[in-house]
Amino acid sequence: MSWELVDFAQMASWLVSNVANFLLILTIAFRVWVVLWIAKDISLRTNSFAYQLFSILIGLVPIVGYFVYLLIRPPFFLKDDGYWRESLELQSIVCKQCDGLNLREWDKCGWCGATLKVQCKECKNLVWNDLEYCTWCGAPLLIEENGKKN
Ligand SMILES: [Zn+2]
Ligand SMILES: [Zn+2]
């Protein structure tokens, strides 16, 4: 009888120490995961090495590090930033004569009056003069030959 009791006590202590080890391993694994996740996330948000290093160091702080990182990280991904700039560029056109910035919906430059469009030789439609191909028929635009004929 006493033999069974000892066995049970041993088993219980073995179980307790193993559960403690398991929790410790889980905590360490979680910390490593957080740091790896932050390293990946921050590299998509900034190119600044100092910023990246600082974020990873913050991630090493137990528990609060992860939440502090969520507060200090840049709000946008780098690629989203790029799309913003691209979409703005699509809506604007630089005058070839005075370098003034104009909206694409304007036909003439608001700063010097020069025309912002050229006529396609193939289909005779007006096309913005900073493009390489006609947006109506796809013919290549030879800017020098087209001149400033409206
Ligand atoms: Zn102009
Ligand atoms: Zn054309």
Description:
By secondary structure, the protein is mainly alpha-helical. The protein folds into two domains: 2-75; 80-146, no CATH class. It contains five helices and four strands. Strands 1-2 form a two-stranded antiparallel ribbon. The radius of gyration is 32 Å and the shape is rod-shaped. The relative contact order is 0.07. It binds zinc ion (2 copies). One zinc ion (ZN) is lined by residues 120, 122-123, 125, 134, 136-137, 139.
What is the topology?
Blueprint: H1 2-43, H2 49-59, H3 64-72, H4 78-91, E1 92-94, E2 101-103, E3 117-119, E4 126-128, H5 143-146
Antiparallel strand pairs: 1-2, 3-4
Bound molecules: zinc ion (2 copies).
Descriptors:
single chain, 150 residues, mainly alpha, two-stranded antiparallel ribbon, 4 strands, rod-shaped, binds zinc ion
